[in-house]
Amino acid sequence: MSRYRPPSPPKSNYLTAEGETRLRQELDFLWRDERPKVTQQVSEAAALGDRSENAEYIYGKKRLREIDRRVRYLRKRLEDATVVKALPSDTSKIYFGAWIELEDSDGDTSLYRIVGPDEVGDKPGYVSMDAPLGRALLGKQVDDEIVIVTPGGRDRYYVTAIRYTMPA
To answer: What's the distance, Cα to Cα, between the start and end of the chain in Å?
Structure first.
């Protein structure tokens, strides 16, 4: 058995304006607030003497590596990202940034928004455009049926509404 793992497929480089703002705020917080604090803590721990058994020093260095890794990732994503601020020309179809109301076969309705992979988890109902549900929804219209294959079987949904502004 080999240790080879195929590389993960590349993420889409799209962000909503709100997503870009949130990533920029996170980058700013890490670079201007968090990193200087941790750097100060590491230098104070290093001044205590033996670093090989100094837990504060070891943990601080580890935390600095985590912060630097996240800062590099955020800078790269923001540099490569395409921020979608304009509405699509045809607002009757589902495109990136749309709010979609779906009805399942039981008659229950759910509200989703198609966003980029970096924005999933920001708010409830955000679905990545790379996720199976997001891919199935793109390009659909009101009253279209969507079938998603899940481990529990096939799920059917019907598009009942499409908006490009946040619903009230």
So the answer is: 54
By the 8 A CB rule, do 128 and 117 touch?
yes
Contact in structure between 76 and 58 (CB atoms under 8 Å): no
Place of tokens 């721990």: 45
Here the tokens at position 153 are 């079987």
Pairing of strands 145-150, 153-163: antiparallel
**Which CATH fold would you assign to the domain 86-163?**
Chitinase A; domain 3 (3.10.50)
pLDDT band at 122 (very low <50, low <70, confident <90, very high): confident
For the domain made up of 14-83, give the CATH fold: Helix Hairpins (1.10.287)
d(CA 97, CA 100): 9
pLDDT at 85 over 80: yes
**Strand, helix or coil for residue 155:** strand
Task: Give the length of the chain.
Answer: 168
